[in-house]
Q: What sequence folds into this?
């Protein structure tokens, strides 16, 4: 079981994700440089948080064109599990693997705090370890995490069970309290909160551990 | 090959909240200008593009605007090909 961790210039949670997967959960990881194309032998791919390519133009806009992401798109379209955390979620929306967009927080503040989330796992492979309606705590750390899509799409996403994580107390103005979205097939998950920062009881909770360890079972 | 000068104006769609615009509007009032009723912040991309002809330049600029400079989910764009300096290339 090997998990690829994408590394862009400007990624800053890649080592946190590696630590959580290896140090806390005992999985094997491989860093994937943005110019690489080889995804052979990987069982899952994580696009971590940070500021890919400085987040120039828009968050995730330049990353979308990285050679590596052509392979990640193929991997996802073949059903491979792909997880985008924070900037990784922004990249997944820019790539079109998840619908909608992430924009500046409603009150402009960079938010770095614990948040309570309600989990609606549905068909999402990454959330198989959680019960429907369960409340968990994960930290957020973002300035541009306000999810936006038009009302018709929001209704459709809700109806299809793709809004798999909702804020209990919406911190950033996201429509529909969206904190995390799954694709319809359930193998791609994007979320603004950081599960990798909630895998060690010594550093504030382990509610993220079941999410990251799910790659061992998908 | 002809060189085309273009400006692409990218703006948030009217339905999308612009917190930076709202904050700037509040600052305008603090500066003593109370009459600002609407303030939205976008961005401008100025570029020079080599292309064999104007139609090709237009098509390439539209592709860039729609697929790179703007995210159509939240943004609109407007293209101005402001000047054509054909024949200036050595």
A:
């Amino acid at each position: 079981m090997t998990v690829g961790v994408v590394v862009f210039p400007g990624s800053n949670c890649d080592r946190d994700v590696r630590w959580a997967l290896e140090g806390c959960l005992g999985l094997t990881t491989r860093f994937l440089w943005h110019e690489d194309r080889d995804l052979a032998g990987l069982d899952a791919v994580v696009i971590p948080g940070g500021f890919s390519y400085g987040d120039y133009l828009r968050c995730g806009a330049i990353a979308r064109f990285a050679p590596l992401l052509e392979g990640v798109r193929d991997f996802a379209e073949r059903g491979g599990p792909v997880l985008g955390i924070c900037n990784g979620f922004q990249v997944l929306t820019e790539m079109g693997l998840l619908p909608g967009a992430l924009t500046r927080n409603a009150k402009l503040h960079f938010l770095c705090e614990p948040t309570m989330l309600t989990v609606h796992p549905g068909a999402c492979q990454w959330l198989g370890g959680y019960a429907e309606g369960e409340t968990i705590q994960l930290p957020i750390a973002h300035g541009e995490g306000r999810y936006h899509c038009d009302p018709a799409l929001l209704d459709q996403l809700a109806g299809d069970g793709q809004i798999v994580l909702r804020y209990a107390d919406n911190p950033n103005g996201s429509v529909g309290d969206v904190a995390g979205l799954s694709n319809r097939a359930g193998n791609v998950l994007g979320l603004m909160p950081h599960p990798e920062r909630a895998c060690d009881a010594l550093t504030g909770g382990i509610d993220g551990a079941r999410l990251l360890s799910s790659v061992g079972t998908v | 090959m002809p060189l085309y000068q273009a400006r692409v104006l990218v703006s948030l769609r009217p339905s999308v909240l612009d917190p930076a615009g709202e904050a700037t509007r509040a600052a305008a009032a603090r500066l003593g200008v109370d009459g600002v009723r609407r303030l939205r912040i976008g961005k401008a991309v100025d570029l020079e593009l080599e292309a064999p002809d104007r139609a090709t330049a237009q098509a390439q600029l539209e592709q860039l605007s729609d697929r790179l400079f703007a995210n159509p989910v939240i943004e609109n764009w407007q293209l101005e090909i402001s000047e054509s300096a054909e024949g200036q290339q050595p």
The longest strand of chain A covers residues 111-119. The helical segments of chain A are 14-24, 67-77, 87-95, 151-159, 209-213.
